[in-house]
Design a protein that fits this description.
alpha+beta
Length: about 160
C-alpha cells in the first residue's frame, strides 16, 4: 500500500516548522515548540512555553481534476504565538512571523526539497496578526498554507 500523501504532507510541514531554531539561522527557537491541533485548545495547555507554533487544519481550496488523478490543496493554518505581555509584543511577534515566512517560503517553479514526492508545491497566504487580550494572553500571527497534493486514482 502506498503512503497517504495527506498524512505525509502534514508531517513534512511539522518537520519543516521544527527547523526554526537559531542554530539553523532563524531569529527564534520556536521550532522547539511545534504543536498540532486547535490553537485555542493548545493555548489552554499548562506549561505550554513560548514562542509556540501550532499547525491547525483549515479549509482547503477546490480540487482540480486531472487524468487519473486529482490535485488537492490541503489547507492549514500555521499559527505562531508569543507571550511577552500587553506592551511591546510587536517586535517579538514580527521576529516569529519572519521565521515562519522564511521556513514556508515557496520558490516559483521549484519543488521544496522538504516536501514528499507527490506534493508539488505550497501556497502561502497573507499573514494576519492578533494582539493579546479578550482573554488571550498571547499575541499571535496566523498564516494560511495550502499543500498541492496529487492523489492518484485506484486502478484494478
Amino acid at each position: 500500500m502506498s503512503q497517504n500523501l495527506l498524512t505525509a504532507g502534514r508531517k513534512a510541514l511539522i518537520r519543516q516548522l521544527e527547523t526554526i531554531t537559531t542554530g539553523n539561522g532563524y531569529r527564534t527557537n520556536a521550532g522547539a515548540n511545534v504543536r498540532s491541533g486547535w490553537f485555542n485548545e493548545v493555548l489552554k495547555t499548562e506549561q505550554l512555553g513560548f514562542p509556540v507554533i501550532v499547525l491547525q487544519k483549515a479549509k482547503g481550496l477546490p480540487p482540480k481534476a486531472g487524468p487519473g488523478a486529482v490535485k488537492l490543496f490541503s489547507g492549514f493554518y500555521v499559527i505562531g504565538a508569543v507571550d511577552v505581555g500587553l506592551d511591546d509584543y510587536d517586535d517579538a511577534l514580527e521576529e516569529l512571523e519572519h521565521d515562519l515566512i522564511v521556513a514556508l517560503m515557496p520558490t516559483e517553479h521549484v519543488l521544496p526539497a522538504w516536501l514528499p514526492r507527490g506534493i508539488t508545491g505550497i501556497s502561502v497566504g497573507a499573514p494576519e496578526s492578533f494582539p493579546p487580550g479578550n482573554g488571550e494572553r498571547a499575541a499571535s500571527v496566523l498564516i494560511p498554507v495550502h499543500l498541492h497534493t496529487i492523489i492518484q486514482g485506484k486502478y484494478p
